[in-house]
Amino acid sequence: MRILVFGAGSLGTLVGGLLAPVHDVTLVARDPHAARVSTAGLDIVGAESTHVSPAATTTETGHSADLALVTVKSFDTAAAADALADCDVGAVLSIQNGLTEEMLASRLDAPVLAGTATYGARLVEPGRVECTGVGRVVLGALDGGPDPLAERVGKAFRVAGLNTLVAADMPRRRWEKLAVNAGINAVTALSRVENGALAGDDAHDLAHRAARETARVARLERVSLPNRVAREAVDRVVEKTAANRSSMLQDVEAGKRTEVDAINGAVVDIAAEHGFEVPTNRTLAALLRAWERGEGIR
Ligand SMILES: NC(=O)C1=CN([C@@H]2O[C@H](COP(=O)(O)OP(=O)(O)OC[C@H]3O[C@@H](n4cnc5c(N)ncnc54)[C@H](O)[C@@H]3O)[C@@H](O)[C@H]2O)C=CC1
Ligand SMILES: CC(C)(CO)C(=O)C(=O)O
C-alpha cells in the first residue's frame, strides 16, 4: 500500500516507520527531521527497535497515495486537509486525539476513516523516534458499521506488525476516548501531575465529571455512551497509564499550544449546538486557554 503520513512528528513517524518495511511510506514532515530521514533513515528505539528508510519530504501537495494517515496536532488539521485536497489519495485515516475526522470529511472527497491510537511516541531528535509504549490502533467507518475499506487498511497495518483492531463501533470508541482525554488530559495538565496521581484524589472526581459531561453530549449526538462506561474508561486509563504524563501536560511543560480546542473545547461547542451546558468542560477549557494566552506558549 502507498501510505502518505501527513504530519510526521512523534506518532506519525513511529507508525509510518513501523509500516515502512512492508509498505511504500512517505513521511510529510518538517526539516530538519525530513532531511535527516531522507539522508540517513529513521531509528526507532524503545519498546520497538529497528532502522528503516521511508521516503521523507517537506513538500505537502502533489502526492499520490492509497492512504493518507493524518497525524498532525488537531489544530493543524484544517491546513493538513487543504494540502491533502491537492493530493490524489484513495482514503484518509486520522489517528489524532480529538474529533478531527469531521473536518477532514467536510474538506476532502476521499473517504475518511476514524481512528484512535494508544501507541506512545516521542520524537527524540531528527531521524530518531522512541516508542514509549506498544499500544493499539483502532480504526473503522466514521459512522460505524462494517467497512471493506477499513478492513483493507487494518489488514495492511497488521501485515506490518502493528497491533490493529478494525471496529464497527467507532462513534462510541471516539467519544469514549474523547471523554478520557477531556478528563485526564485537562486535569493533569492544569495540576501538573502524572495520570496515576488522579487516583482517589479530588481531582479524580473532576476528571469523572468532565468525562460524564462528554458522555451526555455523546448521547445528544445519538452515540450510546453511558456515564458509567465513560467513568470506568477514565479509571482504567488512570490505572493502566499511571506513570504517563498526558500529552496535554507534556505540551504545557514544553510551553506548546495544547489540543484543548479539539478536546474540552469541542465538548463545549457540540453541547451548545444542543442548547446544553457542560460547566466542567467549559471551566477546564477556559483555564487552559487562559494559560495559552498568558505566559504559557513560549
Ligand atoms: N505522541 C503520542 O504518543 C500520541 C499522539 N496522539 C495524537 O496524535 C496527534 C499527533 O501527536 P504527536 O505526534 O505527539 O504531535 P507532534 O507535534 O509530535 O507531531 C505533529 C507533527 O506534524 C507536523 N506538521 C504539522 N503541520 C504540518 C505540515 N503542514 N506539513 C508537515 N508537517 C506538519 C509538525 O511539525 C509536527 O512535527 C495528536 O492529535 C496527538 O494527540 C495520540 C496518541 C499517542
Ligand atoms: C490516554 C492518554 C490520557 C494517556 O496519557 C492520552 O491519550 C494522552 O495523554 O493524550
UniProtKB/TrEMBL annotation:
GO CC, sorted alphabetically, is: cytoplasm
- InterPro entries noted in UniProt: 6-PGluconate_DH-like_C_sf (IPR008927), 6PGD_dom2 (IPR013328), ApbA (IPR003710), Ketopantoate_reductase (IPR050838), KPA_reductase (IPR013752), KPR_N (IPR013332), NAD(P)-bd_dom_sf (IPR036291)
State the species of origin: Haloferax gibbonsii (strain ATCC 33959 / DSM 4427 / JCM 8863 / NBRC 102184 / NCIMB 2188 / Ma 2.38)
Judging by the UniProt lineage, the source's domain of life is: Archaea
Where would I find the Ketopantoate reductase N-terminal domain in this sequence?
3-143
Q: Which reaction does it catalyse?
A: (R)-pantoate + NADP(+) = 2-dehydropantoate + NADPH + H(+); (R)-pantoate + NAD(+) = 2-dehydropantoate + NADH + H(+)
Which is a Pfam family this sequence falls into? ApbA_C
UniProt-listed Gene3D superfamilies:
N-(1-d-carboxylethyl)-l-norvaline Dehydrogenase, domain 2, NAD(P)-binding Rossmann-like Domain
Instruction: Identify the residues that the record assigns to the Ketopantoate reductase C-terminal domain, covering every copy.
Output: 171-290
GO molecular function list: 2-dehydropantoate 2-reductase activity; NADP binding
* The protein's name: 2-dehydropantoate 2-reductase
Might you give the EC number(s) for this enzyme?
A: 1.1.1.169
**Gene Ontology annotations of biological process type:** coenzyme A biosynthetic process; pantothenate biosynthetic process
Q: What are the transmembrane regions? A: none
Its keywords, alphabetically, are:
Coenzyme A biosynthesis, NADP, Oxidoreductase
Which family, according to UniProt? Belongs to the ketopantoate reductase family.
Function of the protein:
Catalyzes the NAD(P)H-dependent reduction of ketopantoate into pantoic acid.
Recorded metabolic or biological pathway in which this protein acts: Cofactor biosynthesis; coenzyme A biosynthesis
NCBIfam families for this protein:
apbA_panE (TIGR00745)
